[in-house]
Design a protein that fits this description.
Blueprint (H helix, E strand, L loop, with lengths): L1 H10 L3 H24 L15 H4 L7 H5 L1 H21 L2 H8 L3 H34 L13 H32 L2 H22 L8 H9 L8 H25 L5
Length: about 260
Amino acid sequence: MIRAYRFELLKLRRRSVAIAMAGVTILALFATVLTFSRASKNGRPNREGYASTITQLEGHQGLTAGFVDGMSLIGLLIFVVFLISTTTEFSGGTIRSVLVHQPRRLAWATGKLGALLTALVASITTAYAVAVVASLALAPTRDVSTSAWFTADGIGHAAGAWLTGVAGAGFYGVMGVALGLLVRSTVIALAVGVAWAGPLEHITQNAWSGATGVFPGLSFDAVARGGVPDASLTHAVMTALAYAAVAGSIALLGLVRRDVTS
């Protein structure tokens, strides 16, 4: 497994991976700019849990509000990157040569996922840092007081936002790898995954608020945002772990049992 992990880390030293990591940072920056520019002075907080008022931004959660608000898009991007990284092993024909050098398929899959998660932590940490710096720069432009940001509650929440961001994005990534191993076709896997985690889940959510605590994508999103009004962090984590465990087990079983024809 260690050899597979090191090998997969070397494979991640590609321009496409660097572009994807830059995309995560850009999304975090973009979300932070939108959060501060669109926050109203006299409005009420919205029911989705996004920071929407100046009062919210002045609270202890304000420093990382933009980063948290951007995790929905960031998670979906991570899902796509992990999925494509997996399916290209089959469509590109590299899986056969990989398994020649590493015939233990479970060890290869574990090493690949570990390498991808290592890159994910580095990417999310960079995006987090950029979002925090952007928040500090944007606060004076909207006359947002930052005194609550540096209290014990503010620092604790900021640390928690990074941790839940990494966890939520990690769940998206695990599901991307699992779907890629099961479907093996980039086009089909993307169509199924993005359609389900994107419009279908959110359309259902608009009609049924309980969907947030039931569907996988919405649960991953709730984890990444540290909990939402319709699903607590604890409930979201338990639901996400269940989905990740089931999907991962099925994907690994399929990897071991199915022939590799590419």
